[in-house]
Amino acid sequence: MRVAIVLDWLDTRGGAELVLEQLLQCYPEADIFALVDFMREGERSFLRGHKITTSFIQRLPSARRYFRHCLPLMPRAIESLDVSQYDLVISSSWAFAKAVKVRPGQAHVSYVHTPIRYAWDQQELYLQQAINFEPLRKLARFFLARLRRWDIKTAGRGGRLVANSHFIAERIQQCWQRDSIVLNPPVTVDDFTCTEVKEDFYVTVSRLVHYKAVETLVEAFNLMPDKRLVVIGDGPMFSGLQAMAGPNVELLGYQPREVVVDYLQRARAFVFAAHEDFGIVLVEAQACGTPVIAYGQGGALDSVIPYEDTSTSEGACSPTGLFFDQQTPDSVVGAVEGFEALDEGISARACAANAARFAPDKFRREFMAIVEQALEASADC
Question: In this structure, are residues 375 and 107 in contact, taking their beta carbons and an 8 Å threshold?
């Protein structure tokens, strides 16, 4: 069976690349298609020498540096990739990949990380951060309106849709009016060791950009000078956060993987204020035996068992964290104080057991079952 895996692009390793790594284990003979491939040599080992076909954007002048600015060309570019000779098409899509053209009766399973964010719920944030000239913003709004129409029109090409969280399944229904199957992304939980002895500090790991709401955490801990917060990550907000941080808040900037894991293992709890599609780092923290204090929306609802609700469909019944209701400093303060006031606390072993639900072998098994159903359905056409 000939298999094609279609991606938006290959640039740096992140959640989408973790999914790709598992897909390649499921289908080791697959060919890869992407809009562009600028993955660094030192990060390519998981690709295992697979053939990668790219679009015409790859060959544009200065594409390596500016390919993200080629947004108006990407719908045409994804449609130019020819996968018609393959028996099975799998797309891993957070923007354009799900719209690759397939022939009638061709099996297509699309793993959707999110509908195009800058065309839907984050349009204004994208325009504010990317474009400073108001006439260009007006032109961009016109283009993004066309992009939304194209996104809806091509949603049917996605074949069998698989959402990475219940939150994304809701967004797929809202944006595309289509149903989807929920399958959470794989997390390499075996790379982490559950540590039961904790130290007296809190930690967060995040890119320092506005929508991650790290400033909310910094402001909250400024209100709790007796509690220490460690912030790991870099981004355009680093200087501003450093200027506003009190003496009990330490910003470490970018840190290598082993340092991140060390802090996750030792922290009293992991705090997180973003509204994420899924949030792999929440699972990684739990794999270290570390409870999570998070904003109770988005993907966190899939990965954290809150203290108030110790029931889950998969049998784990011990709490692994607490939620706060609003992305405000006062709400974070209330959750942290509530966490410290728990009579029985939250077990490190319960956190690690919950994280095990997201192991890569489970993802592979369930994804391949979905593919088999899609192949049977296409054979009946």
Answer: yes
* 263 Ramachandran zone, left/alpha/beta (phi>0; psi -120 to 50): alpha
Q: What is the CATH number of the domain that holds 131?
A: 3.40.50
β-bridge partners, 229 = 202, 249
Q: What are phi and psi of 154, to 5 degrees?
A: -95, 0
State residue 316's pLDDT score: 46
- Write down the pTM of the prediction: 0.90
* Cα 229 from Cα 224, distance rounded (Å): 10
- Quote the CA–CA distance of 5 and 29 in Å, as a whole number: 10
Residues 179 and 218 in one domain: no
pLDDT value at residue 49: 85
Cα 350 to Cα 300: distance, rounded to the nearest angstrom: 16
CATH number at residue 281: 3.40.50.2000
Do residue 44 and residue 103 come from a single domain? yes
Extract the residue ranges of the chain whose pLDDT is less than 50. 311-316
CA distance 82 to 182: 28
Same domain, 92 and 236: no
Q: Which pLDDT score, from 0 to 100, does residue 63 have?
A: 93
d(CA 41, CA 330): 45
